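TA notes. Do not distribute before section.
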Amino acid sequence: MKKFLKIFALLLLIVVIYLRIAIYPQLDLISGFSSKSVASGHFLDNRSLETIQQGDNDIDKVDWATNVIDDKGQFATATVYGLKERKAIYREGLGATLINDDFDVTKPYLVPKRTQLKNNLPFPYGNNEPTDSVFSNVDYKKLNSVVENAFDAKGKKDKRTRSVIVIYKDKIIAEKYADGFDKNSRILGWSMTKSLTGTFFGILQKQGKIDIMKPAPIAEWKNDERSKITLNDLLHMNSGLEWEEDYSKISDVTKMLFIAEDMTTPQIDKPLVGKPNSTWNYSSGTTNLLSGILRKQFKTHQEYLDFWYSSLFDKIGMHSALVEVDMKGNFVGSSYGWATTRDWAKFGLLYLHKGNWNGEQIFDESWSKYVSTPTNTSNGQYGAQFWLNAGGKFPNAPKDMYYASGYQGQMVAIFPSHDLVIVRMGLKEDPEFDFNGLLSGVVSCLTAKSTK
């Protein structure tokens, strides 16, 4: 019996040490992710706590958290077995922000000024419902089957698609939502937000206010080799800077998203581990640094906030779109963009039409070619804040397809050769979700030339 107790005590000690070393430091991240997810989903899209916990938060370890919503105070809290409480507050116009104990919730704050598009045009160029169109070259029966196949069969959770929309020649030819979601549901795009952030550099370039080929305006880099890093390198994720993008552990990206007060700064302090324009490395820190650089283009914080909406979102009628901010008021340009599926599709259409929105040129035509041209050393995978199929990631989809992509399989896919945009939002990504089948399946439903 004594021998058994000694063995048990030893095993217990090993477990305690493991939990202390391996798990306890992660609790900040777990409760941080959970409270932020709950606050965003509840206050931005009116989802219930149960729905969020069974959907967005049913992730390994995140599901350890216990969450509480305070509707009156407009915040959510989370703990892990009563430890490491984290709080995320909601502010109208800014979304949810994960805060620390020092954050002053009584301090006044600025919000973006919004304008509503007012006309009688149908989707996508106006506020009215889309008009019905039938194309003779579209196999609608097959198309509906392809889209239906992207969703879970009754009683299953293996595909976990929330929405799919297919737009051909500016017309919706297929649209489907999972139970609990519809055309008005705001859905988090995660890293699709990077493509939004990059677009603002295209807009500023068209306005003659920025030159992306010049060195990045970072004071900390002026006296070392990092001074050679250009905005072009940052947009291409090809700066040569060190960064660890690993969401399964404590890493650069998880510390930034769930601990940092100012998310625009973590990448600044990283050393070079390669050469600019020769060392591709995907980094959310780089995109948030770009958000910080955007902020410096404006004299006031209000102008920075307004620009994201007046120059793009409200300009093209993405009125549901909202990018959340960090504790310092910076847009989290790497990860926290929300919009309805239809509004995400509008963003894809803007690129399909090379920056032209119903006659107005939002960015130069050359910008769409710039973002969809492979970056050095990315093996055809990446352009400028957009992913590419040039390297054949999806072997049966057209090689000219390029796309905004986000965690858990968010995608806005643009097909220049087919006048086509496909949006899929969900909770499973490649290879668990068959994107190759969805993308190639939709394209196969289009034949030769079309007539209405």
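Switch to the second chain here.
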Amino acid sequence: MKDETMGQEDATQDAEACAEALESLDRISLDEIAFDDSGVDVQDELEAEAQSDDQDADDVEPAEDEAGHEGTESEAGNQPESDTGEETVLLDSLPAEDSLTRELPGLGSAPAVDETIAMGDIPLPSVPSAHEAEVRHRKMSPKRRNLMVAGVVAVALVAGGAGYAAWNGYQQEQAAAVAANAHTMMSVQIGVHAAGLDCSAGSKIPVQVSGQDSDGSSVSETLYVDEHGRGIKLLPGDYTLSIAASPIASDGTVYTVPTTKAQVTIKSDGQDLSSQAAFKLKVPSADTVTDDQIDAAAKYAEEGGASSAATAKVLQQAATARRDAAVNAVSAQKAQAARDADARHKATDLYQLDIPVEWYGKVETWQNGSTLCIYLAGDSDTPIVTLVAVREGESFTPDEGDTVLGAANLGNGYTVYASGPVYPYVVPQTINGRTQNPVSTYPMDTAIELVELTTGNRYTYSQIKNVLVGKDGKADAATKLETDYLAQILLPSIKAQD
């Protein structure tokens, strides 16, 4: 019991010392703290149970008897006490009638206990009544209550301060990380497409960058990306991207520069901006590339797009050579086309026309006055179509075995009639050995060529033989096929002679 009492006194002293220290450190004035007695009832009850020196042996005595409690307690100082302030009662001090072997009413005597049970060292449990708790609460000094509450407040302040310090530290770390990122160059990727471009052999694509970084500084510079859109490094910020000029491929290809611009925001390293900034560089006809385009591409290649100024010069020469070769080729083609057109152009004393391009090189012509015959090259006996000018009011009768395939009015009092064999009908009959008005017999390669010329390759020989002509010998479908084709490619070119 003495040890417990001493421990309680030590705890009280520690609490007082803690309160005094908190007063000096945190400047907490206990006199300024107002407490509600009802707010600490539970803690008061626990403290009251631990304070045996403030208890009376019998808390149920009237309040006026409590004043002399300390004197009585000192006189009975050698009496053992329980944790609750109640007197410990030994069984051997009980009157005989209260012994363990007394006779219970109606049950007779219980068996005698052989050994004496000493319970003086075991305190009996005691639960304070409501009156006792109230008395203990009132007897506790205001200073003690204030000290206890101050301790609770101090613990809360320490815990809260530690939590605030941890949160504040986390916030500072995050702010430091953001600040560090704001001053770190970020690598980003954009979307580019340039067919045939290999920047390891040619030059890179110059990208014009303008905008403002996270520091508020204005940015205007040219950066270079490869064919995959990689190579841009910038501080976080908002930028506008555009293609400054064409790169030059190793074969001298120069691209058409897109005029589009892209608005992007750079936030993190490795950011993929290909969905926001995508540029397609098309390959124009080489003969249309200008000296200005080549010079601009070479300038950016020398400034950073190529591995060296010497490499940029070589690429410029390749671009110029490629353009010049294309220009020469186009010029040659135009010259040949002019010659071909002249060769295809035919004229009589009354009209002129152009041989269809599909027929050029495969046919030849002869003419007599206003009559012009177009026949299979190398075989004048195989005419494809014969053109005859007839004065208005006069009739026209084709040669035997020929059919009128169309007519063109010249507007000067003459009409040109086109006539000839219906080869899509005649040829299959001849090959099959049929003799209904055959013009002549043809080897298979000639038969196929005649069918192609008179139909514009829209049907094969087999289709004409098996479908258009068939076995009934009618020529209507085959004739219509040839007349429709001639009406599209030959008759529109027939004009009156100037």
